[in-house]
Amino acid sequence: MAVGPEVRLQEFAGGAMLYDSSRAGNAAPGWLDFGWWAGRGAVQPVNEGRGSTFLIEADGRSLVLRHYRRGGLMAKVSADRYWWQGAERTRSFREWHLLYHLHRAGLPVPMPVAAAYHRRARTYSADLLVQRIPDVRSLAAAIRAAPVPLGRWVAIGRWIRHLHERGVCHADLNAHNILLGEEEEAVWFIDFDRGTLRAPGWWSDANLARLHRSLEKLSAGLDAERFSAADWQALLDSYFATGPRPEPVPATRPR
Asked: Which of 20, 59, 80, 172 is catalytic?
């Protein structure tokens, strides 16, 4: 995917950093290092999510730093090392490029700031830094706290449809990766690791099915009104409703 002249690549010993100079002209490799921020007292606790995600508050900036970690059985082999296949195929560079593209298209995703990889022999580790979205909570947290108004489900369905119409396949669309702001239409999507741009296909139905499974699992054991059949139907009705279609983003083959 093409990028503007503001996107810079800085190599350093053992790796490289990709960043947006218009957003972070003074970016340095330390920006992608938890220890570098912790030594400056800039790390804030995270209320939910994986332990590899950190909030950074420094010099008037509010950022989210994520260190990529494996899940499932592979985590027992290596917690955070991935097989090297070239810089542009690292998890951090691929997600950074996707977020850059989607943010410029006006979609509700975090603004990417920087990404880096550290290579060692045939493996690498990776980190991503994005602008923090203020005054939000996850859909999961909202459901745990109280019933979510139908208008919220309508907005979520509408925004998922806009993503799909632009060919955006979120690899892990679940209640934790959907953020809600104070306004009813304020919906954002995060964690696009392994996300791709695709031509129309059944993957969009699989995305919805994955979200539904996430919501059912989350709401199991909670009061029935926390997530009901009417909530899901409102989301689907909004998703399938007719309306203006945004200009599509050119699809790329998933790697």
From this structure: 172
